[in-house]
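Revision sheet: structure tokens.
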Amino acid sequence: MKMVFYSLIMNNHQANVADELWKQTGHSYCFVELANLQAEHRKGDAHDYSDRPYLLRAWQSDKDYSKAMELVRTADCCVFSGVQALPFQKERMELGLLSFDMSERWLKRGFLNLFSPAILKMFLAYHLGGWSKKPIYKLCCSAFAASDQHKLLTYRGRCYKWGYFTKVEKIDVEASPDVSTSNITPLMWCSRYLMLKHPELPILMAHRLRNEGYNFMLDMYGSGEYEDRAKKLVKELGIEDVVRFVGTKPNEELLSDMRKHELFIFTSDKNEGWGAVANESMSNGCVLVASDGIGSSPYLIEDGETGMLFCSPNTSSSFEHPDMKALDALCKKVAYLLDHPQQRQAMRKRSLALMQDMWSPKVAAERLLVLMDCLQKGQETMFESGPCSKA
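Predicted:
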């Protein structure tokens, strides 16, 4: 079975599943990269993927573009991601061939997003092209994508859970920090210092919990526009003893550091499309405490079982005017975990097992091939939860 992905760029969000699909299709797989983006647009991913045998860079020459267009006519199944893939997607739909559209949610700002030229083009292509009658389905890289599509009368009843799949290795959670011998619980926050990531919340949480007598250390990783403001707040609150600023590290070092922490705090608001750091933290033995507005959170976390969910901060939350409801909820969840080390350890084991058994690149690739086969035979998905189950 020849399968082709069309996407803006090959990056660490796509490469792991792509590698697996290359193996599992017996090398009958191609990833078409549609743009030549500089490193600053790759979200910190500086890896060179040019050695991938399945990579076709349509932007590189007219010959490569023509080859990509020929593949859209001959492949058994195509997956399209983003407005840049739309010319290929329209050609495929004219032929009425099995396809998937892959995206995060469309309506982060509600129906105002329909004024976005990219989303408007895709919305009109679906309705004006009569795609509701074509064999095209939706891979939802956000727990909120299916409801957005339902509101827009697109892909109704044709949405399947999907996401971004980071590397999942076999690790022993027992070899991580030993809760029985350490009185100080290590907490981690890792992100760019942007307002949609809300770095004010973990700092304010640390201040409150320290005042309540909890023993922990919060390590904050990353850099960005509001890093200095975050450092200033820590100093103003006098909590330098429980909050450390680590700065940026290469991804492999970050993953190693995750294994030295028990809790990972993820405070983004609804503007976080997926949030691959959720996969990474859970895969490396952390209990994820995450905002319920993050695209990956409702897929990956069963509250109290495989992690903790707290109510998403308002997009207006800031250093000057923090969302107190979100802060209260965050503090409550983290305090519970600090108070219950046995439950915390059990939760770490369950979340790690979930990533290894269900949300790994290998399992995702296997399931996508099964779903394709089911749809070609006119059957529904056989999966009740996880990747390729109904969204």
